[in-house]
Amino acid sequence: MQIINYPSFITKRLALRTLNLKHAVEIYHHFSSIDVTKFMDIEPCKDLREAEEIIQFHLDDSGCRWGLFDITTSVLLGTAGFHLWQVTKEFSKAEIGYDLAREYWGVGLMQEALIPIIDFGFTTMKLDLIEATVDPSNLRSIRLLNRLGFQKQGELKDNLVYFILIKEKWLAIN
C-alpha cells in the first residue's frame, strides 16, 4: 500500500518536496504561528522537538506530507499532503490536509500545490476518494475545496465540515 519514494513536484511558483527531519527548523518556524495552526487540531509549536514530532507523525503515517517551498527563494510557505490512507479490496481513500503561512493567503498558492497532489493521489496512489475536514469558520479553505471540486457531505460530531472528492469527478474536470 505505501509508496516509499514520493516524488517532488514543480509548479509555476512552488517546489513541493517530501518533508523529513532535516526540515525541522523550518517546520518549527512555520507551525509556531498561531495563524497557521488556528484551524488545526494542534497548538502552535513551542520548541524544535514538537516540530520533529509533526514531521515524524507524517513519516510514520500512511501517506505523505510535502513542504511547499518558494521556487525562487526556497523558503517554506506551507505543507500539504495525505494521511490516513486506507485500502480495502473494494476501496481506497485518504484524507488531505494543508496549511499555509498567513502572508501567502489569497494568492492561489494552495490551489496550485493541491492540483498535482490530488492528481498524484488519484493516478499513482489509486485513491477512489479523497476526504477533507474543515473548521466551519475557515471560509478560505471551504472556498478552496469547492473550487477543486470537493462536495460538502455534512458536519461531523466534532463540529468539522466533511468534504469528499471522488476520482471520477476529478478526472472529468481535469
Q: Please, could you describe this protein's structure?
A:
By secondary structure, the chain is an alpha+beta fold. The chain has six helices and eight strands, in the order ββαααβββαβαββα. The chain has helices at 24-31, 34-37, 48-60, 109-123, 139-147, 167-173, and strands at 9-10, 14-18, 64-70, 76-87, 92-100, 129-134, 151-155, 161-166. A hairpin with a 4-residue loop joins strand 4 and strand 5 (92-100). Helix 1 (24-31) crosses helix 3. The chain is globular, with a radius of gyration of 15 Å. The two termini are 25 Å apart.
Helical run tally:
6
Elements, N to C (H/E):
EEHHHEEEHEHEEH
N- and C-termini, Cα separation: 25 Å
Specify the helix fraction band.
25-40%
Report the major sheet: 8 strands, mixed
Rg over C-alpha atoms, rounded to the nearest angstrom:
15 Å
Total strands: the figure is 8
What is the SS-derived class?
alpha+beta
% residues in beta strands: 25-35%
Q: Uncertain regions: pLDDT < 50 for 5+ in a row?
A: none
What value does the average pLDDT take?
A: 92
Strand line-up of the largest beta sheet: 1-2-3-4-5-6-8-7
Shape: globular
Keywords for this entry:
174 residues, alpha+beta, eight-stranded mixed β-sheet, 6 helices, 8 strands
